């Protein structure tokens, strides 16, 4: 009986220790992500925003454009739903960032109205083509926005990755269009 | 007797040809994703099935509510047309092939209907009334048809 009690106490200790270390020690960042990303500065409706302004918060980052009818709204829905799945205090430490690769049609004010449709936690930003080109190189993706389109009805080729950044601004996970809000929330919780 | 048989045969051929022409591709689960009010583009989804005995070719889609409608592959490559052989099916669905409405003439609201007209190679026009769904808060599993 006494032995059983000690086994129980020891198991409880191991469980609590495990929970504690999981919270303190974050998972390892995959090596292929260590050279992806970096700070940038773009325009929001509230003025210039740096990615480093979000240090201390988990950031969900997506590159798209507001005229994108399918994958962008679907991903922003996932982003918004994932944030809503978190507890209130957890939500305070998470932000969504939507970077438009189509500055000719997406002004910062338009992006504000666009992202607000999905969640007030998502901020829309954009910048000059040169800034966006530099970000694409730094963040290892390609995109194609027509330079001199014949009509306003053009499409932009853009990445479909949802980047998860830790509180230090490092990319820690790369999710794609198949990810569910539950998947995203689970990854976010690992890094809170 | 021969004349009667001839008339009957002719009648049969006419009936069969009109049946072939009248046969329509079935469209199910047709809906449109509610776009943000500031957006003038939207995506529509549907499932097409050709239960007819002839190949059907969808040349284009139009809508009185949009300046332009295009069929897109998953990687945003435009589809020139869609060929459905007898018993073939094709699905436009979220995060995959979709119908893109560009230049919406007025903001689209939830619980309204959007009209799409399918223009088939044989000249037939098929009019659809799409339900508008607000997908905010839906899980992605729920988005697949």
Characterise the protein shown here:
The complex is a heterodimer of chains A (192) and B (145). With 192 residues, chain A is α/β, with parallel strands linked by helices. Chain A has one domain (27-191): Glutaredoxin, CATH 3.40.30. Chain A has helices at residues 2-24, 71-85, 88-91, 108-116, 129-138, 181-191, and strands at residues 41-44, 47-50, 58-64, 94-100, 122-125, 162-165, 171-175. In chain A, the strands form two sheets. A five-stranded mixed beta sheet of chain A has the order 5-4-3-6-7. In chain A, strands 1-2 form a two-stranded antiparallel sheet. With 145 residues, chain B is an alpha+beta fold. Chain B is 17% helix and 44% strand. Chain B contains two helices and ten strands; from the N terminus they run αββββββββββα. The interface between A and B is medium-sized, with 28 and 30 residues.
Key words describing this protein structure:
A: about 190 residues, alpha/beta, Glutaredoxin, 7 strands, elongated, B: about 140 residues, alpha+beta, Immunoglobulin-like, ten-stranded mixed sheet, 10 strands, about 45% strand, disordered C terminus
Write the layout of secondary structure elements.
The complex is a heterodimer of chains A (192) and B (145).
Chain A (H helix, E strand, L loop, with lengths): L1 H23 L16 E4 L2 E4 L7 E7 L6 H15 L2 H4 L2 E7 L7 H9 L5 E4 L3 H10 L23 E4 L5 E5 L5 H11 L1
Parallel strand pairs in A: 3-4, 4-5
Antiparallel strand pairs in A: 1-2, 3-6, 6-7
Helix pairs in contact in A: 2-6
Chain B lengths: L1 H21 L3 E8 L7 E9 L6 E7 L3 E7 L5 E2 L2 E3 L4 E4 L5 E7 L8 E8 L4 E9 L6 H4 L2
Parallel strand pairs in B: 1-10
Antiparallel strand pairs in B: 1-2, 2-7, 2-8, 3-6, 3-9, 4-5, 4-8, 9-10
